[in-house]
Amino acid sequence: MHLYKEHIITVYNQYDPTHTTVLRNAFVRAMERRFNELIKIIRIAVVEQDCFGAQKRMLIQQMYPPGYHAFDYPRSAARVEAFMQWLKIQVDKGILTIQQFQQIGEAVEAAWSNMYIADSYKRGIIRARYEMIKAGINVPSIEDSGGIEAIFGLPFHIDRVGLLFTRVYSELKGVTEAMANNIAQILSQGMIDGDGPRLLARKIIATIDGKDAGTLGLTDKLGRFIPAKRRAEMIARTEIIRAHHLAAIQEYRNWGVLGIKVKAEWITAGDSRVCPKCASMEGRTFTLDEIEPMIPAHPGCRCLALPIIL
Question: The whole model's pTM is what?
């Protein structure tokens, strides 16, 4: 509870009105570690273990390389298929892993990303309650309501955060599926072109982290390319803000049911990084229904909705 108290009484930070910078960065670092581990085992599989047999001659607990010449089949199609099956297992274990967490005294299975979304959602609840009290709305404090875990466990919050868990998992799955399609195409063309292990590994890894993507010709018809790792990091940063925002709006709405008339004022980070769209929203007021789907306004948005008493 002390972490959240400290979070709330922090002096207003013009660069991050949501005060979720540390959490967003932690989520991104966790995402990076998982993608970096995937890159590591791909490099070992393709180059060091020569899994396709192109040349005749400790890791994170969940992921593992396939073994020396593991996919050295006569047909190229069989090599690609076997590699993609192995890759899917590594992605499922590393990027989309489901693991056990303790919840209300018992172990439950959940995606690793849920802990970051839940943390941001709780911070959104706390920030909303604090801002309502600050605005003169007669609502009880977090402590008087039994603590953040008691509030977070209420049905309307559990239902909402469950949807956020599903959203993040689905978006990450979309990223990994697109990545897998790109890798399959690269492997098929690379074998036709006679690419060696090192070049194949460079091309596969470039689809993940973007390094050397331009020199390797990994762009779409419009010359664009967003590597899987970068897309996943954008999802991490954006969904932290979404969880924080939706938690706050739900808190405002909960008290509105009791007859308290609440609108929301759009607040930006107020620095040079604020985009023109968000800058035009600064200080504008909206109904809760109006502003609920508006934040985040774009990937990487840092805006906040503050309560206004009518």
Answer: 0.82
